Amino acid sequence: MVERPIKVLLAKKKIDVHGRGTKLIARELRDAGMEVIYFRFGTAEEIISAALQEDVDVIGVSIMTSGHLSIAKKLMSGLKEHEMDDVLVIMGGVIPEVDFDELKAMGIDEVFLPGLPGETVAQYIRENLKRVYV
Amino acid sequence: MSNQPNNNGFDKAKEAWSKARQKYADKITPKTNLSGIPIRSVYTPEDTASLDLANMPGVYPYTRGLYPDGYALTPWMQQMVFGYGTVEETRKKMESLVAQGMEGYFGHKVFNVVYDLPTMYGIDADHPEAEGNVGQCGVHLCTVEDYDELIRDWELEKTNFSLITGDNCLPGLALIIAAAQRRGQTADSLRGNSMNWYPRIAVQDIPSWPPHLGYALMTDLIQYCSKHAPAWNTANIFMYGLSEAGATPVQELAYGLAWGKSVIDAGKAAGLEPDHFVGRLGFQVGIQTNLFEEVAKLRAHRKMWAEITRKAGCTVPQCMHARVHVHTAGNVLTAQQPLNNTARITIQIMAAVLGGVQSIHSCSFDETIGIPTELSHRTALRSQQIMMWESGLKDVADPLAGSYYVEWLTDQMEKEAWKIYNRVEDLGGYMKGLADGSIKRDIDNSAYQTKLQIKKGTLPMVGLNRYVMDEKEKHEPFRVDYAIERKAIERLRAFRKKRSQQEVDGALLSLKNACDQFKGGAGHLMPVLVDAAGKGVTNGEMMETMRNAFGWVVTD
Predict the structure, then answer these.
(1) Model's pTM, two decimal places?
(2) pLDDT digits (tens, 9 = 90+) for A9-33
(3) A17 vs B206: CB contact, 8 Å cut-off?
(4) In a 3-state reduction of DSSP, which class is residue B166?
(5) Nearest CB to A98 within list B136, B244, B476
(6) CB atoms inside a 10 Å sphere around CB B371
(7) Which residue from A82, B405, B436, B507 has the highest number of Cβ atoms inside 10 Å of its Cβ?
(8) Residues 115-134 of A with CB under 8 A from B
(9) Where are the domains of chain B?
(10) What homologous superfamily is domain B77-456 in, according to CATH?
């Protein structure tokens, strides 16, 4: 197996606004040595197809304007269909903490509050990556 | 102590001051404000000696305020952003806000209505991509009937409708004009504001029109209104958007003014006289938590805009007025320990009032968690009202004038902002900086630097990098029932059934032809859109036609 940097796809849901958080996390994950594909806006299907094409290890979805539950549901069922169980899926942004458990029950691996250092996310990714590299 | 009061002049006082601090002076850590300007711990007459402080409020260059007596005649406008669901839910919210005392100048009604993302983006409720977003973070308004209901029974001449549209700015205005016409009134009876903030694309990675057409559409609305709706405010220079994207207060000032200048340039290039349209441009400014820096920014902003507009050919005072609506900053609010945000919002409202602005939206403390609740939204409004009636802050115009620190800082903010502004102008102006991505890069870099400072702890944020608590936040946000989506779709379908499809098809064909011409630099779009709106063409249908003609791009 060839050693390569951890590959992360960062996306926002199809119609959303305010990219500051996503762009910052993208930059901070790059600082942490990861390869980041900043996908901007996509439907669950578009995000999955980009993730397949880029063969990413992690999908990160940022939410600013609600709709986190519906995109999580679609995303997780799409990933299952494509047998992408080895991809780590995280979410972040303006998401109420009272919804975190429901998101995790759907299969989202972790949810992050806004404003946290990118290093917190990077560390989580390193420690929880589902694919194993030598 | 035998310290004698020193009445023998400043020099002696300063000497004594030096002595008093001698022991520890070199241990004081140097500070900078958010804009990177070094701040000392004491300011003196020496710092203002070279400044021209012989100004009065209401007099050019308006550093001290737009009006001679500040808020003495009428307080600022309380313009809380609101809107969710269909127009029916939003109508109820309008009425409850009026009952809560939200009002504008001289008791006029003010409605700062935010649209949902599908409407902003230009897709109707039944479009597949709208799913999950209809009525969620704003109201879904797609037909002229929706606007009939929005304006129903309000006295148009005494009601301000600020329409927080996205790219649907022109269709939004066309639809409200059509609704006014349906009740027998004309466009010139409308009061309010189009956002017309295409230039925000400079910092937002969302798809929109190609730059030259974005500016052409913006100008088309301004031209239309200067003729048909002279009391309508035609463009909102969205400095808040720059600030939220990461601009420092000085960058926000500089790029905001350059944005404003680009609107003036575009209007003049289209043949408009500055005095005929510049007075209907306004600003929306972000206010972060460093109180004095924000006050200085607002003071410098008025002065700089006065100079820019005069240089651009404006001669009437109203056209040199930087009229400001403040949106308290969302980016400095924390999801951690969210009630702490009430303290931040209070400081921000104070800065806005001490800075002499015309209108304020105060954020709700729980916006970092989700859509504000009835209680948090009302408390944000009440915070303004407490500031208005209990604090005494509005009693005196420009109360910080003459403060060594504030006057010095106003001057520093101005100087730093001119540096950036002049660089942007020298390189071809804001529109060029938008198209080549240079504005975005500069502001993105500031956002990154801010984040690094928060990470290092050099920019303290309570609850985020200081006094952190490891507690789960149980706050329940306002939930918009997803059933509203079905309701919106039903409203839309019922409307489509009622209209004459033949008229709609004809109007859409005329719109398509007008777009093709417009793309080639000929003709106007607004009159065609108003006509289409009256014939029942929806927001999404107008936008689809426009997108097909003009293209839809994401700038780098």
Answers:
(1) 0.95
(2) 999 887 777 789 889 999 999 999 9
(3) yes
(4) coil
(5) B476
(6) 21
(7) B507
(8) 115, 117-119
(9) 77-456
(10) Methylmalonyl-CoA mutase (3.20.20.240)
